[in-house]
Amino acid sequence: MTANDPDTLAFYADEAVRYANQTQARSFEHLDTYLALLSPGASILELGCGGGDDTAHMLERGFNVAPTDGSPEIAAEAQKRLRIPVSVLQFQDIIAQNAYDGVWASACLLHVPRTALPDIISHVHRALRPDGQFFASFKSGTTEGRDRFGRYFNYPSPEWLHDAYQADRWQTIDIKTVMGSGYDKEPTEWLYVTAAK
């Protein structure tokens, strides 16, 4: 099964400029917590970089970041802002092996259909070096569905995610529940997952 939902990709194509250039105060607390797990200058593959806010923060902190996004339109907007190459990469096309110290996937794997997510996580696992750190965030729920913009979300529970990660292949998996919001500005329960290879 493909990891790409056509309606979700169409939303990001249509909203690329607005989405990538939204201005709002934000905290990098969870990103800094993640970066503290890595050595200075570590190599990080970023999935779903959006407008590039996290990329810019990681670069400022001295990390070697490879930003990517599954939407060509979003990637183009991020590249304009960051002034470095931003690759268009679909999750199922991750072919790197033992190439990165970290993979950062903030609010992007939540669009992967539930049936495809375990395979995508396997791709990420393969791309990481031993002891590599993988962060991903998901909107919590009990069943997959769509938001008011028509975007697909897998809406997992912590238990479902733990199974999807195939926990025995990771040294550790930590799943935290955090209240926040998103593009829709609605109160949202998020699941923050950090896994060590």
> What helical percentage do the residues reach?
25-40%
Low-pLDDT windows of residues = none
What's the total number of strands?
A: 9
Largest sheet: 7 strands, mixed
Instruction: Please give the alpha-carbon distance between the first and last residues.
Output: 25 Å
Q: Which terms would index this structure?
A:
197 residues; Rossmann fold; seven-stranded mixed β-sheet; two-stranded antiparallel sheet
Notes on the protein architecture:
Helix 4 (53-60) links the parallel strand 1 (43-46) and strand 2. The strands form two sheets. Strands 3-2-1-4-5-9-8 form a seven-stranded mixed beta sheet. A two-stranded antiparallel sheet has the order 6-7. 29% of the residues lie in helices and 26% in strands. The chain is globular, with a radius of gyration of 15 Å. With 197 residues, the protein is α/β, with parallel strands linked by helices. It has helices at 6-14, 16-20, 29-35, 53-60, 72-82, 117-127, 158-164; strands at residues 43-46, 64-69, 87-88, 100-105, 128-139, 145-146, 152-153, 172-180, 188-196.
In short:
The protein is an alpha/beta fold. The protein has helices spanning 6-14, 16-20, 29-35, 53-60, 72-82, 117-127, 158-164, and strands spanning 43-46, 64-69, 87-88, 100-105, 128-139, 145-146, 152-153, 172-180, 188-196.
What does the secondary structure layout of this molecule look like, with pairings?
Elements: H1 6-14, H2 16-20, H3 29-35, E1 43-46, H4 53-60, E2 64-69, H5 72-82, E3 87-88, E4 100-105, H6 117-127, E5 128-139, E6 145-146, E7 152-153, H7 158-164, E8 172-180, E9 188-196
Parallel strand pairs: 1-2, 1-4, 2-3, 4-5
Antiparallel strand pairs: 5-9, 6-7, 8-9
